[in-house]
Design goal:
InterPro entries: ComF/GntX_DNA_util-trans, PRTase-like, PRTase_dom. By secondary structure, this protein is an alpha/beta fold. It contains seven helices and seven strands. Helices cover 34% and strands 17% of the residues. Bound molecules: zinc ion (ZN).
Length: 226
Protein backbone atom coordinates (compact mmCIF):
# COMPACT_ATOMS: atom_id res chain seq x y z
CA UNK A 1 0.00 0.00 0.00
CA UNK A 2 1.36 3.46 -0.83
CA UNK A 3 1.93 5.52 2.35
CA UNK A 4 -0.45 8.29 1.23
CA UNK A 5 -3.35 5.83 0.98
CA UNK A 6 -2.99 4.64 4.57
CA UNK A 7 -5.60 5.83 7.05
CA UNK A 8 -4.84 8.49 9.65
CA UNK A 9 -4.80 8.60 13.43
CA UNK A 10 -8.27 9.54 14.67
CA UNK A 11 -6.87 11.94 17.30
CA UNK A 12 -4.06 13.85 15.61
CA UNK A 13 -4.43 13.05 11.91
CA UNK A 14 -0.96 11.59 11.49
CA UNK A 15 -0.77 9.01 8.73
CA UNK A 16 -0.49 5.63 10.44
CA UNK A 17 2.20 3.10 9.63
CA UNK A 18 1.20 -0.33 8.37
CA UNK A 19 2.15 -1.93 11.71
CA UNK A 20 -0.08 0.48 13.65
CA UNK A 21 -3.04 -0.33 11.43
CA UNK A 22 -2.38 -4.05 11.72
CA UNK A 23 -2.12 -3.61 15.50
CA UNK A 24 -5.53 -1.94 15.61
CA UNK A 25 -7.10 -4.96 13.89
CA UNK A 26 -10.27 -4.33 11.95
CA UNK A 27 -11.84 -2.01 14.50
CA UNK A 28 -13.58 1.29 13.83
CA UNK A 29 -11.65 4.13 12.21
CA UNK A 30 -12.36 6.10 15.39
CA UNK A 31 -10.15 3.68 17.31
CA UNK A 32 -7.09 4.11 15.10
CA UNK A 33 -4.15 5.73 16.90
CA UNK A 34 -0.66 6.58 15.71
CA UNK A 35 2.28 5.45 17.78
CA UNK A 36 2.64 8.78 19.59
CA UNK A 37 -1.06 9.02 20.53
CA UNK A 38 -1.05 5.38 21.68
CA UNK A 39 1.88 6.08 23.96
CA UNK A 40 0.38 9.26 25.37
CA UNK A 41 -2.97 10.77 24.42
CA UNK A 42 -2.60 14.37 23.23
CA UNK A 43 -4.03 17.06 25.49
CA UNK A 44 -6.53 18.10 22.82
CA UNK A 45 -9.67 16.10 22.09
CA UNK A 46 -8.94 15.89 18.38
CA UNK A 47 -7.09 17.75 15.63
CA UNK A 48 -8.87 18.41 12.34
CA UNK A 49 -7.38 19.67 9.08
CA UNK A 50 -8.90 20.60 5.73
CA UNK A 51 -6.26 18.78 3.73
CA UNK A 52 -2.60 17.86 3.27
CA UNK A 53 0.00 20.62 3.13
CA UNK A 54 0.73 20.31 -0.55
CA UNK A 55 -0.28 21.58 -3.98
CA UNK A 56 -2.64 24.55 -4.23
CA UNK A 57 -3.48 24.61 -0.55
CA UNK A 58 0.19 24.97 0.36
CA UNK A 59 0.68 27.68 -2.25
CA UNK A 60 -2.34 29.67 -1.02
CA UNK A 61 -1.31 29.40 2.63
CA UNK A 62 2.19 30.61 1.83
CA UNK A 63 0.92 33.54 -0.26
CA UNK A 64 -1.37 34.56 2.58
CA UNK A 65 1.24 34.16 5.28
CA UNK A 66 4.44 35.40 3.71
CA UNK A 67 3.48 37.56 0.72
CA UNK A 68 0.87 39.76 2.37
CA UNK A 69 -1.96 38.59 0.13
CA UNK A 70 -4.56 39.29 2.78
CA UNK A 71 -7.57 38.88 0.49
CA UNK A 72 -6.82 35.14 0.50
CA UNK A 73 -8.24 35.02 4.01
CA UNK A 74 -11.71 34.78 2.42
CA UNK A 75 -11.26 31.62 0.30
CA UNK A 76 -9.03 30.05 2.95
CA UNK A 77 -11.62 30.93 5.59
CA UNK A 78 -14.31 29.20 3.53
CA UNK A 79 -12.21 26.03 3.61
CA UNK A 80 -11.63 26.46 7.32
CA UNK A 81 -15.40 26.80 7.83
CA UNK A 82 -15.89 23.24 6.59
CA UNK A 83 -13.44 22.06 9.27
CA UNK A 84 -15.29 24.04 11.96
CA UNK A 85 -18.49 22.27 10.88
CA UNK A 86 -16.76 18.96 11.65
CA UNK A 87 -15.94 20.18 15.15
CA UNK A 88 -19.54 21.31 15.69
CA UNK A 89 -20.72 17.84 14.65
CA UNK A 90 -18.26 16.21 17.03
CA UNK A 91 -19.22 17.95 20.26
CA UNK A 92 -22.43 18.97 21.97
CA UNK A 93 -20.75 21.82 23.85
CA UNK A 94 -23.16 24.77 23.71
CA UNK A 95 -20.42 27.32 23.04
CA UNK A 96 -17.24 26.78 21.03
CA UNK A 97 -14.65 29.49 21.72
CA UNK A 98 -12.49 30.03 18.66
CA UNK A 99 -8.93 31.07 19.51
CA UNK A 100 -6.33 31.73 16.81
CA UNK A 101 -2.72 30.93 17.69
CA UNK A 102 -1.27 34.35 18.54
CA UNK A 103 1.84 35.94 17.04
CA UNK A 104 4.48 37.59 19.15
CA UNK A 105 4.52 41.38 19.08
CA UNK A 106 4.24 42.80 15.60
CA UNK A 107 6.59 40.64 13.63
CA UNK A 108 3.99 40.52 10.89
CA UNK A 109 1.37 43.12 10.14
CA UNK A 110 -1.42 40.65 10.59
CA UNK A 111 -2.08 37.28 12.13
CA UNK A 112 -2.98 35.00 9.23
CA UNK A 113 -4.65 32.42 11.47
CA UNK A 114 -6.86 35.04 13.09
CA UNK A 115 -7.84 36.46 9.69
CA UNK A 116 -8.79 33.01 8.43
CA UNK A 117 -10.71 32.13 11.59
CA UNK A 118 -12.71 35.38 11.38
CA UNK A 119 -13.40 34.80 7.67
CA UNK A 120 -14.56 31.27 8.50
CA UNK A 121 -16.91 32.58 11.18
CA UNK A 122 -18.33 35.14 8.75
CA UNK A 123 -18.92 32.33 6.26
CA UNK A 124 -20.73 30.27 8.91
CA UNK A 125 -22.79 33.32 9.93
CA UNK A 126 -23.91 33.79 6.34
CA UNK A 127 -25.23 30.23 6.24
CA UNK A 128 -26.77 30.51 9.71
CA UNK A 129 -24.36 27.98 11.23
CA UNK A 130 -22.26 30.22 13.45
CA UNK A 131 -24.63 29.97 16.41
CA UNK A 132 -22.34 28.10 18.78
CA UNK A 133 -19.05 29.65 17.68
CA UNK A 134 -17.64 32.67 19.44
CA UNK A 135 -14.35 34.37 18.49
CA UNK A 136 -12.14 34.70 21.56
CA UNK A 137 -8.67 35.33 20.14
CA UNK A 138 -7.66 37.75 22.87
CA UNK A 139 -7.64 35.14 25.66
CA UNK A 140 -4.43 33.61 24.38
CA UNK A 141 -1.29 35.64 23.97
CA UNK A 142 2.28 34.86 23.19
CA UNK A 143 4.48 35.92 26.08
CA UNK A 144 7.81 35.37 24.45
CA UNK A 145 9.22 35.16 20.98
CA UNK A 146 10.01 31.67 19.76
CA UNK A 147 12.75 30.65 17.43
CA UNK A 148 11.62 29.91 13.88
CA UNK A 149 10.58 26.27 13.95
CA UNK A 150 11.74 25.48 10.46
CA UNK A 151 15.07 23.87 11.30
CA UNK A 152 14.00 22.16 14.48
CA UNK A 153 13.25 18.52 15.10
CA UNK A 154 9.89 17.58 16.68
CA UNK A 155 11.52 17.37 20.15
CA UNK A 156 13.22 20.74 19.71
CA UNK A 157 9.95 22.31 18.56
CA UNK A 158 8.27 21.11 21.73
CA UNK A 159 10.96 22.72 23.86
CA UNK A 160 10.94 25.87 21.72
CA UNK A 161 7.25 26.63 22.34
CA UNK A 162 7.18 25.53 25.99
CA UNK A 163 5.80 28.39 28.10
CA UNK A 164 5.42 30.66 25.06
CA UNK A 165 1.70 31.30 25.64
CA UNK A 166 -0.43 32.64 28.47
CA UNK A 167 -4.13 32.95 29.10
CA UNK A 168 -5.65 36.34 29.78
CA UNK A 169 -9.10 36.16 31.32
CA UNK A 170 -11.40 33.37 32.35
CA UNK A 171 -11.55 30.17 30.30
CA UNK A 172 -12.86 27.87 33.03
CA UNK A 173 -15.09 25.17 31.60
CA UNK A 174 -14.59 26.33 28.01
CA UNK A 175 -14.59 24.16 24.96
CA UNK A 176 -11.93 25.94 22.93
CA UNK A 177 -11.10 25.57 19.25
CA UNK A 178 -7.46 26.49 18.57
CA UNK A 179 -6.99 27.64 14.98
CA UNK A 180 -3.67 27.62 13.13
CA UNK A 181 -2.76 27.52 9.45
CA UNK A 182 -0.59 24.40 9.38
CA UNK A 183 -0.20 21.45 11.72
CA UNK A 184 3.38 20.28 11.41
CA UNK A 185 4.55 18.33 14.45
CA UNK A 186 1.68 19.52 16.64
CA UNK A 187 4.06 21.23 19.07
CA UNK A 188 2.34 24.63 18.86
CA UNK A 189 -1.15 23.12 19.06
CA UNK A 190 -0.15 20.99 22.02
CA UNK A 191 1.35 23.93 23.89
CA UNK A 192 -1.71 26.16 23.28
CA UNK A 193 -3.84 23.27 24.50
CA UNK A 194 -1.73 22.77 27.61
CA UNK A 195 -1.91 26.48 28.44
CA UNK A 196 -5.70 26.61 27.99
CA UNK A 197 -6.30 23.41 29.93
CA UNK A 198 -4.10 24.56 32.81
CA UNK A 199 -6.15 27.75 32.98
CA UNK A 200 -9.31 25.67 33.30
CA UNK A 201 -10.57 24.97 29.77
CA UNK A 202 -12.52 21.71 29.80
CA UNK A 203 -11.81 20.63 26.26
CA UNK A 204 -9.70 21.78 23.32
CA UNK A 205 -10.07 21.00 19.63
CA UNK A 206 -7.38 21.91 17.12
CA UNK A 207 -8.34 23.12 13.66
CA UNK A 208 -5.84 23.81 10.91
CA UNK A 209 -6.18 24.33 7.20
CA UNK A 210 -3.41 21.93 6.34
CA UNK A 211 -1.48 19.13 7.87
CA UNK A 212 1.95 17.90 6.93
CA UNK A 213 2.63 14.18 6.84
CA UNK A 214 6.12 12.94 7.72
CA UNK A 215 6.57 10.98 4.51
CA UNK A 216 6.06 14.14 2.49
CA UNK A 217 9.21 15.78 3.78
CA UNK A 218 12.65 14.31 4.05
CA UNK A 219 13.25 16.19 7.22
CA UNK A 220 11.25 18.75 9.14
CA UNK A 221 13.84 21.35 8.19
CA UNK A 222 12.55 21.20 4.64
CA UNK A 223 9.58 23.26 5.78
CA UNK A 224 9.88 26.92 6.57
CA UNK A 225 6.91 27.34 8.82
CA UNK A 226 6.71 29.82 11.65
ZN1 LIG B 1 -2.02 10.47 16.63
Amino acid sequence: MRPETLPCCHLCGERCAVEEIAGAGFGRAADLRCEACSAEAPGFARAFAFGPYSGNLRALIRLHKFEGTQELAVPLGARLATVLRSVAAETEAPVLHVVAVPLFGSRRRYNQSEQMADAALRELRRSGEAGRFLAAHRVLRRVRATESQSHLTPAQRKKNVRGAFAVRGDVIGWTAVVVDDVYTTGATAAECTRTLREAGAANVYVVTLARTQPERVERWGALDLG
